[in-house]
Amino acid sequence: MDAPVLKDIDNISYTRHEFHHEPEKVQGDLLTLVYDIPYLGACGVFPPLHIANITFSSGGGDAGMSPGASWEPFTLSEKQYKQLLERVLNESPEALKDKARFYHIPFITEPSFDHIQDREEWLKVVCKKHRKRYHSEIDKLQKSI
């Protein structure tokens, strides 16, 4: 991870990608980007700092026939991550409704898997534990909309 530390979590530029649509430039904050990145977390579990930095340092991509997001690669400091996590866990997803595509995802944390260093392995074990709970929550949210 040679990407620089993000300068300002309240000001970030990125591009949204949708299949069959032109890319859309977005100027927002890191919280908005988090809710525009498909599959940032795993089954509604927000990644620990080292896993989040793997994603952020990748710069994202257009995802081909799926939605995507791309940005200049960056990493977060521990302080920035704590600020972001506070927002993720306390911001009402409805407040992001007009800003981000995946605003409806209710994130939780799962510290028991924080020791896993590989992103793919982390995704696999977290979803194994949380898939049923996550889909149940999403079903409830969709019925209430």
Which structural traits does this protein have?
145 residues; alpha+beta; 4 helices; globular
Count of the domains: 1
Q: How far apart lie the N and C ends?
A: 40 Å
Helix content: 25-40%
Give the tally of β-strands.
Answer: 4
Query: Taking Cα atoms only, what radius of gyration do you get, to the nearest Å?
Result: 15 Å
Mean pLDDT: 91
Order of helices and strands: EEHHEEHH
Sheet-strand content, in percent, reads: 5-15%
Low-confidence stretches: none
Blueprint of the fold:
Layout: E1 12-17, E2 24-28, H1 30-34, H2 49-56, E3 60-61, E4 68-71, H3 78-90, H4 119-144
Please, could you describe this protein's structure?
The chain is 36% helix and 12% strand. It is α+β, with helices and mostly antiparallel strands and 145 residues long. The chain has one domain. The protein has a 4-stranded antiparallel sheet with strand order 2-1-4-3. The longest helix has 26 residues, at 119-144.
Summarize the structure.
With 145 residues, this protein is of the alpha+beta class. The protein contains four helices and four strands. A hairpin with a 6-residue loop joins strand 3 (60-61) and strand 4.
